[in-house]
Write a structure and sequence with these properties.
58% of the residues lie in helices and 0% in strands.
């Protein structure tokens, strides 16, 4: 599966911040692991990107939480580690400041559970259109 597709789908989950080097490989491995754990069909991810994730089902929402937890951005209780999320924003990203501002604004989004929280963060970041996500 194309890692950039997942990045586009979740837009703000910590996944969107890890675009280079070793983190890209770590992200890809985490995405693959979480797809298996949640049972998400990778073929639905393109349509999710097209709708900004508005049509995400519970499994897709939990995929986001799984990825965030695997990358150390979300704790087991669903709280977001803002410092960790910010640390994943590449310092050489052309939109570095915009990404940091969006992370700062969106990290506090909350849902009824960790899956809903991950989805709310992703929706917030999608609305911010924070840079190219490839």
């Amino acid at each position: 599966m194309n890692t950039s597709t997942v990045v586009l789908v979740f837009c703000a989950l910590a996944v969107t911040f890890v675009s280079g080097g070793d983190m890209k490989a770590e992200m890809h491995a985490q995405v693959e692991k979480c797809i298996i754990e949640t049972g998400v069909d990778p073929s639905v991810l393109k349509s999710l990107h097209e709708t900004g994730g508005a049509n995400a089902d519970e499994n897709v929402k939990c995929l986001g939480a799984c990825i965030m937890k695997g990358l150390g951005v979300m704790a087991a209780d669903g709280t977001v580690n803002l410092d960790k999320a910010k640390s994943l924003v590449p310092s050489d990203a052309p939109d570095h400041d915009a990404l940091l501002a969006a992370v700062e604004e969106c990290h506090a989004e909350k849902g009824a559970n960790d899956c809903e929280t991950a989805h709310a963060i992703g929706m917030c970041m999608h609305k911010k259109h924070v840079g190219p996500m490839d």
